[in-house]
Amino acid sequence: MGMQGVISKPISLIIKDGYLRYYSSNNVILSGLNMQIPAQSWTCLLGKSGCGKSSLLRHIAGLLQRKADWQGELKTQPVCQLENEIAYMAQQDLLMPWLSVLDNVMLSSRFLKTPISEQKKRALSLLESVDLAHKEQCFPQQLSGGMRQRVALARTLMQDKSIVLMDEPFSSLDAVTRYRLQNLAIKLLKDKTVLLITHDPQEAIRLADKLYIMQGNPAFITELEIPTSATPRQFDAQGARLQQQIMTCLENDHE
């Protein structure tokens, strides 16, 4: 049994002259931010810790209402209700420790009108797609970190949204587990519009169809030219040169 998902409708995001400041602070987080996030592809946003990447992601997800002043344009093509199209995958897996793996995956769909039997069938199919069908009755504390993030990925897919926002979901994993989960995510999210924020240049180079780097205070972003090879990329000489360019930008931003 394979993953029985619904192909997402193509939705792109466009940000023009974005400005963000938390009401609790006088410091402007983002200013003059321009960004295009193409439909059904991976856009990666790099930057040092604390530069404003997560704040941008949280604003797009609608999590900063009444917490921050946003100015500028944030629009979708085609026009739609953005909050209805977004799934959010955080750095922490955010699994409920008192729920089984299967119930964690089904958690986001409990308020849907779909019959429970159909939800369970889809959840089991998703667990099979992340190679965890044999762990459906386990609890999160019985799983490794990589397994927990695979459950979180299945739960994200269960939401069946067109746009997936990813806030460094692989950063706490060891190198081999991270590599494998990146490959799995590329495969399973191929029909989604993905915005991944990361501080890892190699991760961004492996996964990006479009790559931005965030710098400055307040932060602005610059688009970087990426290799033309298919993702997930093998690390070659072109990737190494791009990594050096990124490291130089990040190092200068720390001065």
Descriptive notes:
- This protein has 255 residues and is α/β, with parallel strands linked by helices.
- The chain has a domain at 96-160.
- It is built from seven helices and nine strands; from the N terminus they run E-E-E-H-E-E-H-H-H-E-H-E-H-E-E-H.
- The chain has helices spanning 53-60, 101-106, 116-129, 145-158, 175-188, 201-207, 237-253, and strands spanning 12-22, 28-37, 42-46, 68-77, 86-89, 163-167, 193-198, 210-215, 220-224.
- Strands 5-6-7-3-8-9 form a six-stranded mixed β-sheet, sandwiched between helices.
- Strand 8 and strand 9 form a beta hairpin.
- Helix 4 (145-158) runs parallel beside helix 5.
- The protein is globular, with a radius of gyration of 18 Å.
- Mean pLDDT is 90; it is low at 1-5.
Describe the structure concisely for a colleague.
The chain has 7 helices and 9 strands. By secondary structure, it is an alpha/beta fold.
Taking strands numbered 1, 2, ... along the chain, how are they ordered across the largest sheet? Answer: 5-6-7-3-8-9
End-to-end gap = 53 Å
Rg over CA atoms, rounded to whole Å, is 18 Å
Task: Give the helix/strand class.
Answer: alpha/beta
For the biggest sheet, the summary is: 6 strands, mixed
Query: Could you give the count of β-strands?
Result: 9
| Anisotropy-based shape | globular
Question: Can you give keywords for this protein?
Answer:
3-stranded antiparallel beta sheet, alpha/beta, 24% strand, 6-stranded mixed beta sheet, 255 residues
